[in-house]
Design brief:
mainly beta; seven-stranded mixed beta sheet; globular
Length: 259
Amino acid sequence: MNEQPAPKIRVFFSGLLIMHIDDKKGLCEVAIPNTEDHFLSIVVSQRKGGFPEKILLKHEGALADDVWIDVIDTDKLLTPYKAKGKLKRKDPPPEHEQDIRWAIDLEGENFHNQKIEMDYSKISRRIYLNKGFFYTAVRTDPQKIKKCIRSGGNKPELELYSVASIIGADISLVGPKARAVLQYANASGLFQEFGKEGKDITYEIFIQNNPTQRPEEDFKKLYQVITGISPSQKFNMYFKPDVVDHDVPCMTAFLGVDN
C-alpha cells in the first residue's frame, strides 16, 4: 500500500454497515441500519509491542447516540487506498490485495453507477471518523468461495471473484499533542482516549454489526435504507459454494470508492 505513517489506531468494520466519505464535511460516516436481526458490538483493545495486552472497552447492543472517533491536534485526512489503474479482480497482483475497491459500492460501475441517497429514518445510529486511511483488511477467499456473483438489477450476472468482508481504517497521530477520542456525540459514557502512551502502545477498534441468524438475505437489507431504486433495479449477491458460514460475509458497503 501507499507509504503511510505508522498507525496508532486501527479500526475494523464488518457486518451490515454503509460507509461513505463526505469530502465537504471532512468526515467518514458509517451508518448502522435499523434492523432487529443484527447485533452491534464495539471492542477496543490495547496492544504493546505488537502483542495483545488488554481489552479497554466493550459495548454490545444498541447505541445511546451517534459515536465519534475524533482526532485532535493532528492532520485530518480521509484517504481510500486505490492501486494504480483499474482493479484486477481476477488473479490480482499484490498491490491490489488491499485496494478499497473490493468493497461493495452500490454507486460504482459494478452496481448502479449513480449517486445513492439514504433514508435516514431507517438508520439507527451513525459512527463518524474525521481521519483514516481506508483499505480492504480481509476479502473473501476465492479458494473457498469459488463464485461471487452479482445478480438481478435487469442486468446480466457479473462475476466479482471476491469482495471485502472486513474494511480497515488506519489512524496515525502525528505531532506532540496529537490524540484521539472515542465518544458519544451528546450522551454520556462510551469514552476512550488514545495517544498519551508510548510509541510501543497501539490500539484496535472492532466494530461489527453481525446477523443473529444465517445472513443469506443480508445484501437485500442494504436496500432497506436506500431510496430512489425501483424493485426491478435492485441487485443481489450470491456465492458458490452456498454454505453460509464465516467465509461468506454479512457485507459492509462503502459508497463512492469504485470510481
